[in-house]
Amino acid sequence: ITLTLIENYLDFKVGEVWEEIIAELMMDNVTPIKSDREALKSIKTIIAAKSEAVRRHQLEILERESHLEQEEELACYEQIKFNFKQWEQQNASRINFINKTSDYETLQISKQRQSAMAESSRQEPPGATGTVEHNTLLKMLTSTVHSGRHINVPLSDPPSITSPHKVLPAITPTHGAERSVVTQ
Questions:
Q1: Of 12, 57, 124, 146, which has fewest CB within 10 angstroms of its CB?
Q2: What tens digit of pLDDT does each residue of 90-148 get?
């Protein structure tokens, strides 16, 4: 806004000088001739038009700035709503997991729902009529969650025996006592 005023400073200063000249002429009761009156009138209209253009430009800048602030505020509110929804979903998922692991009936319902979803998502091969190639249920399943590819088993041996690169005697029935390198 101030930059617009600075850009047009010279025009405003010239306009101010002309306003003072016109005011002094009126105070001294000097009436300009017809061509001077027309020139003074056109100078006044040019100054008024220039100041109106600057005012409109400043208003446009203020409106753009206000619109930009509103967009940023809406984006911030959307981010807050998204984060809150994510938190609610995580909380519901955690409660669902706790219910599945602590209540056997809920576990059975979840298992049935999962089996139904697996069956419904399976594509039937061409020519097959309702045959299942493999069973989705595992016999004697005692785990309620997927354990992943690796299992961490706590060691019962003292760390001095199982430390990395420790050379331990290994006894095999054919060769007697040999040495082998044990690494974790």
A1: 146
A2: 999 888 888 877 878 888 888 888 888 888 887 766 666 655 556 656 666 666 555 66
The H or E element that residue 169 is part of is strand 166-172
Query: pLDDT grade, residue 160 (50/70/90)?
Result: low
Q: Name the pTM for this structure.
A: 0.42
Find residue 171's DSSP bridge partners: 177
CB 8 within 8 A of CB 56: no
CA–CA dist 10, 15 (Å, integer): 8
Calpha distance 143→153 (Å, rounded) = 16
Cα 168 from Cα 162, distance rounded (Å): 9
The residues, ordered by sequence, that sit 6+ positions from 57 with a Cβ below 8 Å of its Cβ are 4
Cα–Cα distances (Å) from 70 to 64, 76, 83, in that order, read 10, 10, 20
Which ranges of the chain does DSSP label H, i.e. alpha helix?
Answer: 2-7, 9-27, 34-102, 104-121, 159-162
Residue 141 three-state SS: coil
pLDDT at 170 over 80: no
Contact between 167 and 181 (Cβ < 8 Å): yes
